[in-house]
Amino acid sequence: MRMLLILLVTLGGFAAESSPADHVVILVLDGARWSETWGRPERDLIPVRAKRLAPLGTLFTNAANTGATVTEPGHIALCTGFLQKTSNSGVDTPANPSWLQRYLAASHADPADAWIITSKDKLAMLGNTSQKDWSGKALPNLDCGVGGRGLRSGYREDQATVERVKEVLAAHQPRALVINLRSPDYEGHGGNLAEYLEAIRRTDRQAGEIYDAIQAQPKMKGRTLLMITNDHGRHLDGIATGFKDHGCDCAGCRHVELLAVGPGVQAGAVVERSVSLLDMAVSAAAVVEVKIPGSTGVVMPELVGPWL
Known about the structure:
The chain is α/β, with parallel strands linked by helices.
């Protein structure tokens, strides 16, 4: 056993002493503001997360996007462990490989073991990197936008994304999965408060569907760390256009949620210390036994236990 641990460390991997999680799913509820989710006293817009999932896991109340508070940089932080500014149009490629690429390269697993499934077509850019040593190598499966066709296919409805997630879970039980549901951000930009709030309710129900789909897979039930978060928030009321937009340094744009559920995660706990999207990326990488060299993110012991 000791030789196995030494070998894993030598190869740049991790070895866990106690955490049984070996699958990881990051679910991004795009652009939902803290004040309408966990910061809303009644929490009536998120009953699935607040009443059903939170008692099973740990809520982090001080999570943040510490970079540019728009869609692509937020997702790049979650997938690569690095901050990067982009055009936010889908044409820029991450400067660093994702932890999904690192996992596929280190494990030599089938590409079907790592997926990025998003309602927003432009997030297909997450599937590759411009870094020369990694570009075009160990690429995860992509299913982004209308028909899963990627950039310029258009945004698809979140329920279509949820159904695709269910299909992929049933067929492949992937160890690494990143999901984007777009409607809180999309409806927020529309400027209709009622529609924005309904999008938060709807994605809460869909988060429950995804959790149930994970638990329905024998290889993933009891072995999967699920992180539910946001790529960014929205302007505070009274700042710029308020809930309609985002992209500044205000607390409304920076404050994101993190609810984690899975083996080794304390049930019903609340953690108030500061964490970031970069920490989530590094922790996701740890679950699939890879490191992200150079990242300032740190492994979150509340999520993955004591890792060597």
